[in-house]
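GLPGLI family protein
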Amino acid sequence: MKKTIFLLAFLNFLISTAQNKGIIYYGHIESPGKGGPVGLDFNAYLVFDKSQSYYVTAKDSLENERNIENQKIKKTDGQITEIYVGKHTLTQGKQVYYNREKDSIWWNKKYQSPVYGIEKRTKIPWKLINESKKIGNFLCKKATGTFRGREYTAWYSTEIPLPYGPWKLQGLPGLILEAYDTNKELYIYFKAVEYPVKKNIDLHPIKKTKEDKNLKWISTNEYNELLKSIVEKGKTKAVLMAKEYGVNVQSGEMKDISIEVFD
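Tokens:
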């Protein structure tokens, strides 16, 4: 009898735990400085429960070795500005992990080398708009807010009443299914959902690769300085190219290399 009660209690626990978890599948396009959603279109997903969320994109296994090499990237005026050559995904992907209890975000990405960061969650000053639309089977409401130099529009659903979203966008009274900045230089769109999830899913903080295990977690200020350094190196390179070839080479700004722009 005791074994039966224990088994039933355990099964109820597993069922309730599964009902608190979900997966949202997205498309993720980043095109900083391009004037529109013209960058590489990666698969992405958000795994979540009541206490945490984990977002990942540009991951090797998500792309199934899809051929995204040598793709030409154009500005909105049709002019080719760069050609992507080589590998554009990471083994573990570009990840963002959010823990509600600690109110903190851990993330990773890659410029010339891998970067791992940690920061307190930024409270985005969302303005709730009296507009709605259907995304998939969900009725979504509109919100706008400014985050790190860009004005975002987010479509969220209170049918999943959790404050998560793709990338670092969060803090609304429902889960964000679609988000983009003014020019859609960051454009994240809904593909599919599993909620509540019907399978066992792994939800965990970011894990470093063996090669990156000695890299430290940098702060927001250190990340800002890193971006400034990359911009300055780009300007120096532009000046040298201009002198060597006698041409006018425009150097980029932070908004041309990063979705996040710091003051």
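The first helix runs from residue 2 to 19.
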